Fold:
Amino acid sequence: MSTREKLLALTGVIFFACLVIWVVRTTPPAPPPEEKVTPPTVIEYEGNTIIEEKDGQIIWELTCDKMRIDSLTQNVELDGISAKFYQHDEEKSWELTAAKGVYYKVEEVIHVEGEVKVTNSDGAELLSEKLDYFTEKNMLVATGDVKIKKDDMRAFGDMAYSDNALHKVGLSGNAKILKGVKDDEQREAF
Structure:
Protein backbone atom coordinates (compact mmCIF):
# COMPACT_ATOMS: atom_id res chain seq x y z
CA MET A 1 0.00 0.00 0.00
CA SER A 2 1.39 3.33 -0.99
CA THR A 3 1.71 6.32 1.28
CA ARG A 4 -1.10 8.03 -0.53
CA GLU A 5 -3.48 5.07 0.03
CA LYS A 6 -2.46 4.89 3.70
CA LEU A 7 -3.15 8.60 4.08
CA LEU A 8 -6.60 8.22 2.41
CA ALA A 9 -7.45 5.24 4.64
CA LEU A 10 -6.36 7.16 7.76
CA THR A 11 -8.45 10.17 6.66
CA GLY A 12 -11.46 7.88 6.13
CA VAL A 13 -11.04 6.30 9.60
CA ILE A 14 -10.70 9.76 11.22
CA PHE A 15 -13.77 11.02 9.29
CA PHE A 16 -15.80 7.96 10.39
CA ALA A 17 -14.69 8.38 14.03
CA CYS A 18 -15.67 12.08 13.95
CA LEU A 19 -19.06 11.17 12.45
CA VAL A 20 -19.73 8.61 15.22
CA ILE A 21 -18.70 11.08 17.94
CA TRP A 22 -20.89 13.80 16.39
CA VAL A 23 -23.93 11.46 16.18
CA VAL A 24 -23.49 10.30 19.78
CA ARG A 25 -23.10 13.82 21.16
CA THR A 26 -25.93 15.44 19.18
CA THR A 27 -28.54 12.71 19.64
CA PRO A 28 -31.16 14.05 22.10
CA PRO A 29 -31.89 12.02 25.19
CA ALA A 30 -34.87 9.67 25.08
CA PRO A 31 -38.11 11.50 25.89
CA PRO A 32 -39.59 10.77 29.28
CA PRO A 33 -42.27 8.08 29.23
CA GLU A 34 -45.73 9.43 28.53
CA GLU A 35 -47.88 9.76 31.59
CA LYS A 36 -51.06 7.79 31.35
CA VAL A 37 -53.84 10.28 31.97
CA THR A 38 -57.00 8.77 33.37
CA PRO A 39 -60.02 10.91 32.57
CA PRO A 40 -62.26 11.72 35.52
CA THR A 41 -65.13 9.31 36.01
CA VAL A 42 -67.34 11.71 37.96
CA ILE A 43 -69.17 14.56 36.25
CA GLU A 44 -70.74 17.26 38.41
CA TYR A 45 -73.76 19.42 37.58
CA GLU A 46 -75.66 22.06 39.49
CA GLY A 47 -79.43 22.41 39.29
CA ASN A 48 -80.31 19.46 37.09
CA THR A 49 -83.27 17.13 36.58
CA ILE A 50 -83.42 13.39 35.88
CA ILE A 51 -86.60 12.01 34.28
CA GLU A 52 -87.64 8.36 33.98
CA GLU A 53 -90.16 7.60 31.22
CA LYS A 54 -92.02 4.44 30.26
CA ASP A 55 -94.19 4.10 27.18
CA GLY A 56 -94.02 7.86 26.61
CA GLN A 57 -95.26 8.75 30.10
CA ILE A 58 -93.14 10.31 32.82
CA ILE A 59 -92.84 7.87 35.72
CA TRP A 60 -90.81 10.19 37.94
CA GLU A 61 -88.75 13.36 37.76
CA LEU A 62 -86.06 14.31 40.22
CA THR A 63 -84.54 17.78 40.57
CA CYS A 64 -81.60 18.62 42.80
CA ASP A 65 -79.25 21.45 43.71
CA LYS A 66 -76.11 19.46 42.90
CA MET A 67 -75.63 16.16 41.08
CA ARG A 68 -72.54 13.97 40.58
CA ILE A 69 -72.68 11.20 37.97
CA ASP A 70 -70.15 8.37 37.94
CA SER A 71 -69.67 7.53 34.26
CA LEU A 72 -68.52 3.98 35.07
CA THR A 73 -71.32 2.85 37.40
CA GLN A 74 -73.97 5.34 36.19
CA ASN A 75 -74.81 6.01 39.87
CA VAL A 76 -75.93 9.56 40.62
CA GLU A 77 -75.19 11.33 43.93
CA LEU A 78 -77.70 14.06 44.74
CA ASP A 79 -77.84 17.06 47.09
CA GLY A 80 -80.97 19.13 47.82
CA ILE A 81 -83.50 16.70 46.35
CA SER A 82 -87.03 17.42 45.20
CA ALA A 83 -88.84 14.68 43.28
CA LYS A 84 -92.29 13.93 41.91
CA PHE A 85 -93.59 10.43 41.14
CA TYR A 86 -96.63 9.84 38.96
CA GLN A 87 -99.24 7.09 38.99
CA HIS A 88 -100.92 7.46 35.63
CA ASP A 89 -103.35 4.59 36.21
CA GLU A 90 -104.84 6.43 39.23
CA GLU A 91 -104.01 9.97 38.08
CA LYS A 92 -102.29 10.61 41.39
CA SER A 93 -98.81 11.64 42.36
CA TRP A 94 -96.52 11.91 45.33
CA GLU A 95 -93.62 14.21 46.12
CA LEU A 96 -90.38 13.67 47.97
CA THR A 97 -87.83 16.07 49.45
CA ALA A 98 -84.53 15.17 51.15
CA ALA A 99 -81.12 16.66 51.90
CA LYS A 100 -79.10 14.12 49.90
CA GLY A 101 -79.25 10.76 48.20
CA VAL A 102 -78.02 8.34 45.55
CA TYR A 103 -79.78 6.93 42.49
CA TYR A 104 -78.38 3.45 41.81
CA LYS A 105 -79.00 3.08 38.07
CA VAL A 106 -78.38 -0.68 37.71
CA GLU A 107 -80.48 -1.66 40.75
CA GLU A 108 -83.06 1.08 40.00
CA VAL A 109 -83.10 2.18 43.63
CA ILE A 110 -83.26 5.73 44.94
CA HIS A 111 -81.79 6.10 48.44
CA VAL A 112 -82.34 9.43 50.21
CA GLU A 113 -81.58 10.70 53.69
CA GLY A 114 -81.71 13.84 55.77
CA GLU A 115 -85.11 15.35 56.60
CA VAL A 116 -86.96 13.02 54.23
CA LYS A 117 -90.54 14.07 53.55
CA VAL A 118 -93.02 12.27 51.29
CA THR A 119 -96.49 13.62 50.55
CA ASN A 120 -99.08 12.19 48.19
CA SER A 121 -101.94 13.87 46.38
CA ASP A 122 -104.41 12.34 48.87
CA GLY A 123 -102.83 14.31 51.73
CA ALA A 124 -100.86 11.45 53.33
CA GLU A 125 -97.46 12.45 54.67
CA LEU A 126 -94.40 10.46 55.73
CA LEU A 127 -91.33 11.81 57.55
CA SER A 128 -88.17 9.80 58.22
CA GLU A 129 -84.39 9.98 58.44
CA LYS A 130 -83.79 7.65 55.45
CA LEU A 131 -85.87 6.24 52.63
CA ASP A 132 -85.28 3.75 49.82
CA TYR A 133 -87.55 3.71 46.77
CA PHE A 134 -87.39 0.49 44.76
CA THR A 135 -88.64 1.70 41.38
CA GLU A 136 -89.24 -1.74 39.82
CA LYS A 137 -91.35 -2.88 42.80
CA ASN A 138 -92.94 0.56 43.40
CA MET A 139 -92.08 0.14 47.06
CA LEU A 140 -90.87 2.53 49.76
CA VAL A 141 -88.88 1.53 52.84
CA ALA A 142 -88.41 4.32 55.39
CA THR A 143 -86.14 3.98 58.43
CA GLY A 144 -85.23 6.13 61.39
CA ASP A 145 -87.90 7.92 63.44
CA VAL A 146 -90.69 7.29 60.93
CA LYS A 147 -93.86 9.40 61.25
CA ILE A 148 -96.93 8.97 59.05
CA LYS A 149 -100.11 11.01 58.99
CA LYS A 150 -103.26 10.74 56.95
CA ASP A 151 -106.59 12.28 57.81
CA ASP A 152 -107.15 11.50 61.52
CA MET A 153 -104.50 8.76 61.75
CA ARG A 154 -100.94 9.15 63.04
CA ALA A 155 -98.37 6.34 62.99
CA PHE A 156 -94.87 6.14 64.42
CA GLY A 157 -92.13 3.52 64.22
CA ASP A 158 -88.51 2.69 63.53
CA MET A 159 -89.26 1.38 60.04
CA ALA A 160 -92.15 1.65 57.57
CA TYR A 161 -92.74 -0.01 54.23
CA SER A 162 -95.38 1.00 51.74
CA ASP A 163 -96.47 0.99 48.15
CA ASN A 164 -95.35 4.16 46.42
CA ALA A 165 -98.72 5.88 46.94
CA LEU A 166 -98.77 5.34 50.72
CA HIS A 167 -102.03 3.38 50.38
CA LYS A 168 -100.82 0.29 52.22
CA VAL A 169 -98.35 0.91 55.02
CA GLY A 170 -96.63 -1.45 57.43
CA LEU A 171 -94.70 -0.43 60.57
CA SER A 172 -92.12 -2.21 62.71
CA GLY A 173 -89.94 -1.40 65.69
CA ASN A 174 -91.64 0.61 68.45
CA ALA A 175 -94.71 0.94 66.24
CA LYS A 176 -97.58 3.06 67.48
CA ILE A 177 -100.79 4.07 65.67
CA LEU A 178 -103.23 6.75 66.80
CA LYS A 179 -106.70 6.97 65.25
CA GLY A 180 -109.19 9.79 65.62
CA VAL A 181 -106.64 12.58 66.08
CA LYS A 182 -108.38 15.96 66.00
CA ASP A 183 -107.01 19.14 64.40
CA ASP A 184 -105.93 20.60 67.77
CA GLU A 185 -104.04 17.40 68.59
CA GLN A 186 -102.30 17.23 65.21
CA ARG A 187 -99.32 19.37 66.17
CA GLU A 188 -98.64 17.39 69.33
CA ALA A 189 -99.13 13.97 67.71
CA PHE A 190 -96.89 14.68 64.73
The chain has a mean pLDDT of 85.
